[in-house]
Amino acid sequence: MTSFDVSACRERAHLRHERRVANGKDAAQSHKKYARELVAVSGLEQIVEWALTRGISVSFSSKEDDGTYDLGARTITLSSRSSPERVLHYALHECGHAIIGQRLPGERYGFGYSHATAKKMYKVSNKIDILDEELGAWEHGRELAKKLGVKIDILSYNATRNEKIMTYMKWIMRVHPYENGAADD
Ligand SMILES: [Zn+2]
Q1: Centroid of ligand 1 to alpha carbon of 169 (angstroms)
Q2: How far apart are CA 185 and CA 168, in angstroms?
Q3: Which position has the higher pLDDT, 172 or 23?
Q4: For residue 153, how far is its CA from the centre of ligand 1 (angstroms)?
Q5: How many whole angstroms separate alpha carbon 94 and alpha carbon 88?
Q6: Would you say the C-alpha torsion 115, 117, 120, 126 has a positive or negative sign?
Q7: What average pLDDT does this structure show over 60-87?
């Protein structure tokens, strides 16, 4: 686990650009990608700062595929292997979970992560609340980017969201038929 190191991120983006060009990739195209990555790194820097002001710590791990938010510990863990743009998307999404926070059973998302237990996670109603919370976290993440002036390509952000939401939809549909779901395998 490492903390966010903005200069190391910029340096790695630069090295990737140099490597692409050395490998014969179009220099102008590669530079465009490099510039996009730098914008994402700056956005990430703003998000990490925002999180810290709210008592949320952010760390990076090579074992993480995308991102996680620990509701009790108020910690966000992000993938250190994904591209800066993807990491920015995951960071915004995990901040979205932090914004939603702990909910009471009668509230929206109330039977989502706030009251998820291994047993409840098998119930369709809890799964739907988790899906609702997942979508909510993506939306709160988008609003946070807007509020902080963090530049995101909305189509690219939605593509990351859609990919992740699809995994939840598959998880919901994989319930046993007696729980009102459709078995898909
Ligand atoms: Zn999530």
Answers
A1: 13
A2: 16
A3: 23
A4: 19
A5: 10
A6: positive
A7: 93
Could you tell me what percentage of the chain is helix, strand and coil, using 3-state DSSP and rounding each to the nearest 5?
Answer: 60, 10, 30
State the chain's mean pLDDT as an integer.
91
Residues in CB range of 48: below 8 A, 6 or more apart = 4, 58, 91
Average pLDDT over residues 145-174: 95
Tokens 């620990």 correspond to 70
Are residues 75 and 86 in contact, defined by beta-carbon separation less than 8 angstroms?
Answer: no
- What are the tens digits of pLDDT across the range 78-103? 999 899 999 999 999 999 999 999 99
Contact 174, 184 (CB under 8 A): yes
| Local structure of 59: helix, strand or coil | strand
* Mean pLDDT computed over 65-89: 94
pLDDT of residue 42: 97
Question: How remote is the CA of residue 81 from the centroid of ligand 1, in Å?
Answer: 18
How many angstroms is it from 74 CA to the middle of ligand 1? Answer: 14
- From ligand 1's centre to the CA of 50, what distance in Å? 18
d(CA 182, CA 185): 9
pTM of the complete model: 0.89
